[in-house]
Amino acid sequence: MSEASYSCPALFISAPASGHGKTTITAALARLYRRQGKRVTVFKTGPDFLDPMVLEQASGQPVANLDLWMAGQDHVRRQVALAAAQSDVLLVEGVMGLYDGEPSSADLAQLLGIPVVAVINARGMGQTIGALAQGLLAYRPELKFAGVLANGVASPRHAQMLRQGLQHARPSVPLLSGLQRDLQFALPERHLGLVAAPEIADLDARLDAVAERMSATSLANLPAPVDFGTPPAERSFPRLLEGKTIAVARDLAFSFIYTANLDLLQQMGATLAFFSPLADQALPPCDAVWLPGGYPELYLQTLQDAQRTQSSLREHAAAGKPLYAECGGMLFLLETIIGMDGASGRMCGVLPGQAAVQPRLQGLGYQTLSLKLPGAVGEHLRCHTFHYSRAVVGAEFMARGERLFDSSEGEVVYRRQQITASYLHAWFRSAPRTVAALFGGATA
């Protein structure tokens, strides 16, 4: 029997570029609708780990990523349609500018049929906002637009000038809301993006305050429903991890985890056991370990003092058990990490080497990866990289990622016995047999 077709009020929050306030506005809308007693589901476009933490706190619901390249159209459409069946309103936050990237936020909004709210930072701008909005609309006329939300409005007169400009656009564009300048609503950032939500002590107060301001605007009313159709059928995955327990590091230092990756491991039969290096927890009884990425460089002294965790990881590796480490997880396996301020910390020493955080970005973008592991031949793992550190690792080069948009060398994958480590963040669903092999699963 086929699944039902689902519809739900929805908005897609985008902007001309990064820095216009998409995350703040999306979080404020989520909090506004939540305060109205609505069940709000929020999605984040692209391979982002930090924005979803803020959006989750705002909405009170888990936030998943929608990435057309890594996950594919069917998985994206299924996620959204099933969420629509359980929600009163859906919000999707875009990534970068509306038309940036391949695929772009516009591609996703058009696929899903969700109208776009263009958040525009209006500081230092008057009627020219109309030309900017007209350009966004004219660039792809088939895209649905809900209107403009002006961020950084200086005064009622400034708002009037913005409205005049939008009225002169062809076609005219509604000004959905104008938020006055208030630095307390700006979410703090660091080198990888936003500061993680648990670190912002007054985040709830900020979200409540900006939601209160938006409650007097037209956005306080739910948008029109969008018909998301019948969700595509879920893929079936081989249960190659049946009977395996995978220990997963999860805390503020190791928080870059796609929910879909956890779901995939469980769909393949694995039992997940979480532990916190920051709390100096020893590994739980397990067959394999996953050290995801995060911010180990911000907690050097605490991780240096986590001798119970470090010792249990060394014992796990010495026993020849599988250990898979991504980005920050890889750095934790090294002997030393040097932070941005020059301070250093002694890490596990499971892999010889050292990492140092640099003042400039060292790696960014999509990459594909093929690993010569039992049962994984012919698969291509889709990955993303984004890091400011530079590492020297004393381990064998197992493979290199292949960049999606240029021919420069991709990230190195290191292999030592059953340890696999890289700067790459992998989307597990793209190559399930490879993932099973990384965690010591069955090969057939």
From TrEMBL:
This is Cobyrinate a,c-diamide synthase. Residues 12-192 form the CobQ/CobB/MinD/ParA nucleotide binding domain. Its cofactor is Mg(2+). The gene is cobB. InterPro entries: CbiA/CobB_synth (IPR004484), Class_I_gatase-like (IPR029062), CobQ/CobB/MinD/ParA_Nub-bd_dom (IPR002586), GATase_3 (IPR011698), P-loop_NTPase (IPR027417). Pathway: Cofactor biosynthesis; adenosylcobalamin biosynthesis; cob(II)yrinate a,c-diamide from sirohydrochlorin (anaerobic route): step 10/10. The active site is at residue 327. It comes from Herbaspirillum seropedicae (strain SmR1). Keywords: ATP-binding, Cobalamin biosynthesis, Glutamine amidotransferase, Ligase, Magnesium, Nucleotide-binding. CDD domains: GATase1_CobB.
